[in-house]
Amino acid sequence: MTVLKNDCFLRALQRLPVDRTPVWMMRQAGRYLPEYRRVREQAGSFMTLCTTPELACEVTLQPLERYRLDAAILFSDILTIPDAMGLGLEFVEGEGPQFQKPVRTAEDVRQLPIPDPEKALRYVPDAVRLIRRELDGRVPLIGFSGSPWTLATYMVEGRSSREFRKIKGLMYEQPELLHILLAKLTESVSLYLNAQITAGVDAIMVFDTWGGVLSPVQYRQFSLNYARLALSSITRERAGKKIPAILFTKGGGQWLEAMAASGYDALGLDWTTDIGDARARVGDLVALQGNLDPQALYAPIPTLRAEVRQILERYGEGSGHIFNLGHGVWPDVNPEHVGAMIKAVHECSPALHRGGAI
Ligand code: 1CP
User: Is the pLDDT of residue 1 over 70?
Assistant: First the structure.
């Protein structure tokens, strides 16, 4: 068994003492890196990167070569599950993801298979096994899935959406059908994450990118409830080691108490919530991950450093904070600014773990 050389991220997720705040970045492997764009161009398409374990492994490791990051995240996408359910995923240049066969009727829902991750999604656990070998214990590897609700939004809308008219239509007109779809997705998500854990990921994250478009009551019924159910069927341990789980709901700041009681070890915060207030609200129940505004990466470096410092200070002393952006990094960000952000976390955070202020 590989021993981790840097377990700062896993310790912070469990609120165990650390000597500095760990840092990684959502979409840390991606288009802002010229080395990613080169591999992506050679591969021809984004899905080729995802479905070819050697390429997924190569791009997963790219940001670790450049920066002192405390975690790697599997290079993949949340839409692999709907693709494996037979919806026909395409990434249209400049338009984002689209499905040839969106889910619209009761018959569509009934026909959806629950994919066996070692068959239809085999490229994902294969990539995990390869990345883990190549990482050789440098840092932990994060596996992930979309939340059942967020996956359902793409499957029903058929593409990215702003208004969510179709999925909300389904929610108001045929809520029982939406519940059947969400239950199928919940089972698929659990199987998928369990396969990633068996293959070797050290932590898991559930991305609920669109939970924040719901009303409070709907959020509990259609989003949080299924994110919680998916977690309850996940084996959160491998070879006696705990596999911590993170829940990120974009726009979920007003529901932190409910999210903290859902069984996850940590919550991801977007930048609209003050992390100090969030800490006071969730108490000792969970760790917190976040929450720099991704747009702060465009700011001059002294301003960017001040923003990093402010988040570290607002969280305050002690463990339980994982520094991250409040959402994914934008493709046109200067990689040097990403480096400056990471450096600022390394320089400013140790004081907070020696019982002092920055
Ligand atoms: O052309 C390209 O290179 C495609 C850009 C890209 C990348 C780099 C997409 C298309 N997906 C990814 C990778 C990806 N997606 C990761 C890799 C690991 C890492 O973080 O480095 C992860 C975790 C995701 C997750 C993902 N995909 C989410 C949840 C997180 C979030 O950003 O909110 C969502 C919503 C998607 C869907 C998706 N994938 C890609 C696009 C353009 C979209 C649509 C986003 C939208 O609807 O606005």
Answer: no
Is 285 within a domain? no
The parent domain of residue 132 ranges over 34-277
Structural tokens at position 260 = 């903290």
Q: Is 107 helix (H, G, I), strand (E, B) or coil?
A: helix
Instruction: Note the pLDDT of residue 214.
Output: 98
Q: Does residue 357 contact residue 309 with C-beta atoms inside 8 Å?
A: no
| Beta partners for residue 46, in sequence order | none
32: nearest Cα among 56, 9, 66: 66
Instruction: Choose, from 7, 70, 77, 126, the residue flagged as catalytic.
Output: 77
Phi-psi region of 242 (alpha: psi -120 to 50; beta: other; left: phi over 0): beta
Per-residue pLDDT tens digits for 173-209: 999 999 999 999 999 999 999 999 999 999 999 999 9
pLDDT at residue number 355: 79
Pocket test for ligand 1, best of 52, 59, 78 (most atoms within 8 A of CB): 78
Torsion of CA 161, 165, 171, 173, to 10 degrees: -160
Answer whether residue 220 is part of any domain: yes
Q: Active site includes 31?
A: yes
Locate the ligand 1 atom nearest the alpha carbon of residue 40 and give its number. Answer: 3
Asked if the model's pLDDT at residue 159 lies above 80, the reply is yes
358 band by pLDDT with thresholds 50, 70 and 90 = confident
pLDDT above 70 (res 249): yes
Evaluated on CA atoms 335, 341, 344, 349, the torsion sign reads negative
What is the C-alpha to C-alpha distance for residues 272 and 327, in angstroms, rounded to an integer?
11
Q: What are phi and psi of 159, to 5 degrees?
A: -170, 180
Query: Residue 197 is part of a domain; what is its CATH number?
Result: 3.20.20.210
Residue 347 within any structural domain of the chain: no
140-167: average pLDDT: 97
Q: Is residue 104 part of a domain?
A: yes
Q: What is the number of domains present in the chain?
A: 1
